[in-house]
Amino acid sequence: MRKAKQNRRLPGVRTRSGTRGAVVCLVTMLAAAPLEAGVITFPVGAPVTYNYQTAIWTVERGSFVFWRYGGLSINQAANGAIHAGGLLVGPLAEGSEFAEILRVHARGAPFRLESIKVAERNYTTGLRLIVYARDAITQTSFDVELPFDLDMQTYDAFDMIAIDSRFTSVDYVSIQIESPFVDPVFAPYIIDEFVATILCPADLDGDDVVGLSDLAGLLANFGSGTLPEDGDLDGDGDVDLSDLSALLGAFGTVCG
Q: 128 with 79, same domain?
């Protein structure tokens, strides 16, 4: 899943000598929604949307988007320590392992995945959650296996940073349920909490907001900068259009 770097020409932006960054900046300021961080929960009544053209079910919680090709709802039932609420990821009647995967992103912003609190709803032996992620800088993928405790009346809490430090900076996460004894596994589970913090490599001046001063700093180093503080957001050793695109995509982000 390695994503090749592309220096795409942005609308209204020329290379070095003719950058019309102000135009793009104004458009982005109008379109960008502020991002936030913290404990993401799924209370009863949280909206679940369905796109008939793509057959995708989506739950949006702040800046985070959880989507799947079916089987997404908000848990309505309490059972033991399990309370009403939580993202219920159900099995598909007619699906594939690809369709079963739950995907999570923060609208392109990198984030730190602190922890996940999940309850299994199936007694299948060896049931485990496979969490795939993509490193926000290197764009390389990795995965971890999270074993369930086989108690459907309690939540399992997983400290993702302690399990793998690469979760400190990711831009995409996908979740799939598996068992070494049953393949494929179509079993339901409930995500009670998804604790994540939006990261701000584009906050060049350190004021916890990606704003005009950060854009000005990047443009001042455009074509000549080599360091993250110069605006090299993708870590490839220069400040170019891909870095400008990343900053504009994060414009308005409240960091924390």
A: yes
Q: Residue 151 belongs to what domain range?
A: 42-198
User: Do 207 and 186 have their domain in common?
Assistant: no
Q: Which two tokens stand for residue 226?
A: 């080599």
How many other CB atoms are found less than 10 A from the CB of residue 102?
23
Domain of residue 22, CATH code: 1.10.1330
* Tens digit of each residue's pLDDT (9 = 90 or more) over 21-77: 443 443 333 333 333 448 999 999 999 999 999 989 999 998 899 999 988 999 999
